[in-house]
Design brief:
Chain lengths: ~350, ~350
DNA sequence: GGTGCGCTTGACAACGTTGTCAACTTGCAC
DNA sequence: GTGCAAGTTGACAACGTTGTCAAGCGCACC
């Protein structure tokens, strides 16, 4: 009736509990024929180890936490699915933990989370992953983690991460606009608490520089990763004496806001104004016209991060060196960007 | 260094382990002064029970599973946050479990999930919550659950649920369109595997009937809860000899597809065509024009469902009778619906 | 004063796994 | 054949909690 335990498997295979445990955990010192016998017993009984018991006993628990504070459900779901794929693959549990990145006692909250649910480690999404004081606190308290961060290169700060080269992708988007003939390109910033924001700006800046286009500060508007700030920012740009012919919104939501503002002002996209976003959210495909953007392999990135953490967790001194891996978003050209019109239609 | 255990609390309060356990679990037979003393010790030591140990020993574990298969991240995140709020409140863990509702061995998969992670029960989102054969299977195998379903009234089938009256809300939306003067109102169905689809259709149907408008089958298009089906469905409606003056998409994604199709065909919204959606997804606010829709209190609904499940889990024979609770989405009027134009502009 | 009952409390085992450590087996050099 | 190291296996305790059961206490009742 009830699920089989390791005891049943041991009896079935004619070995001790401990040997079964060794097979389950892939430990080295088990003879091949014994291992096979045990494996067969496991398969026959359809045995799966009990998470709770496993986490209770071990110095090594089998559960991760995923910490995020992101208003964008598309991003969050992608990260969840990626981490979950890794956890299922490795037979780990996952405790999701949305939080407020500005909470004053976030560090304690996370420590409590780890203790309470006996988590082996945390996957940290931005912006938590980019708070160095938090990172140091966790490290000092012996909490294992991996960060998903925005960086043009490996930060090599001794703390594990997977990094996304937003700068490079933002460069590509800006370059695409320049190659369409645009010289006045507006830039709408994302939220200051995300490192991706300055990274994306740097990409924009450096593409302009490489093509000899001076940076006009009036074309650069601060804001948040939100539709509303996109809308407002766009209206400020439209009101300029010399408005831009293209606008690069730091993410798709901002770009959607720009699109709405353009519609509201009767500006035709893309013939009077080109718009580019960032992220490849589903609605970048579902707006009209569909948005040019940069596609992040978020699910893959997250899966990688979790696998990296799990691998690092395993045997302390296996001698394996784990490297931080980088990902680059890819330019996706759709219908919201077009060659700049040279004369009135 | 390490976290305090129930043993530390017992020593601190000068009582036995078991008494502390009783206080933690809110059992009745503890004298008030003892309870207070223990509670003080708990507070002073900042003690929190260990989930893994708790789940291991008990017939009653302290973890729920959330099962969903929904392409809409806004919906999923809302459900997650609602269930999570309940779990945090009640000191439960949560294992999320996205799945494929069409997988042939889903029932086994869920049984394995419950066993593997020692879950006390499952919160089932649509469409899993609406598969009666799955529901019966779970019940037969002693797996506790609560369903979030679409229904105009309590199904009273003996299995616990929280129900959402999509029919009523769809009636309101249709009525709103009729009151704006629309007589030819297109309807785009959602996915057939979701009970909300026929429910929303029934609301549409019955509003038409109440206002004496004959149902024209050419105006009713089958499809899925997706942007693409909204786009395609709208184009089929536009091609009719007598196209509709308003279109009711079964959710916001469909409505966004309709909006895009209208733009693509140069049809002005709302002056030439009114569009309504359903769900109040953020992008219903972020499209241009913003969509008229029905607002579901998804997070609240999910929180309720989880609390209901947890309450039912507790003492077997407490004599409390738990009732299924219903929720009604509310009409939200925005800019995508307008009075029908009587003459050409 | 003894009996029985209800309320409160505690001793102890048990949940299913892994860590520790010791014992056994095998292979190989002497 | 002996000695020794490496490889393999098992007995047992332990993780932190809850379920079971029985004991202690006070009180009402005969």
């Amino acid at each position: 009736m009830s699920r089989p335990t390791i005891r049943d498997v041991a009896r079935h295979a004619g070995v001790s509990l401990k040997t079964v445990s060794r097979v389950i955990n892939g430990e080295a010192s088990v003879r091949d024929d014994t291992r096979e016998r045990v494996q067969r017993a496991i398969d026959e009984l359809d045995y799966a180890p009990d998470q709770a018991a496993r986490n209770l006993r071990g110095a090594t628990s089998h559960a991760l936490g995923l910490v995020y504070d992101n208003p964008n459900p598309y991003y969050v779901i992608s990260v969840q699915n990626g981490v979950l794929a890794a956890c299922r693959d490795q037979d780990f549990g996952l405790q999701i933990h949305p939080c407020d990145s500005n909470a004053p006692d976030l560090a304690d909250e996370l420590r409590e989370l780890v203790g309470h649910a006996r988590l082996a480690g945390l996957v940290l999404a931005p912006p938590m992953s980019e708070r160095m004081e938090l990172i140091r606190y966790l490290a000092e308290h012996g909490i294992r983690f991996v960060r998903i961060i925005s960086a043009a290169e490996d930060p090599a700060d001794g703390y594990p991460c997977v990094y996304v080269d937003d700068r490079d992708a933002a460069y590509d988007i800006t370059e695409h606009l320049i190659q369409l003939g645009h010289q006045r390109i507006g830039f709408l910033w994302g939220g200051a608490e995300h490192r991706s924001s300055p990274e994306r700006f740097k990409g924009y800046e450096s593409a302009l520089k490489d093509y000899g286009i001076p940076l006009d500060k009036k074309l650069v508007i601060p804001g948040d990763y939100s539709f509303d700030d996109g809308f407002r920012g766009a209206r400020r740009l439209f009101a300029l004496r010399e408005p831009p012919t293209a606008i690069f919104g730091s993410n798709d939501e901002i770009a959607a806001g720009v699109l709405a503002a353009a519609k509201a002002n009767g500006i035709d996209v893309p013939y009077e104004l080109s718009i580019a976003g960032f992220e490849d959210s589903p609605f970048s495909r579902q707006s009209w016209p569909a948005l040019t953007t940069a596609k992040q392999a978020t699910e893959d990135i997250a899966r990688h991060a979790a696998l990296r953490l799990i691998a690092e967790l395993k045997p302390a001194g296996s001698g394996v060196i784990h490297l931080n891996r980088g990902f680059s978003p890819q330019l996706v050209i759709r219908d919201s960007t077009a060659r700049v019109r040279t004369t009135a239609p």
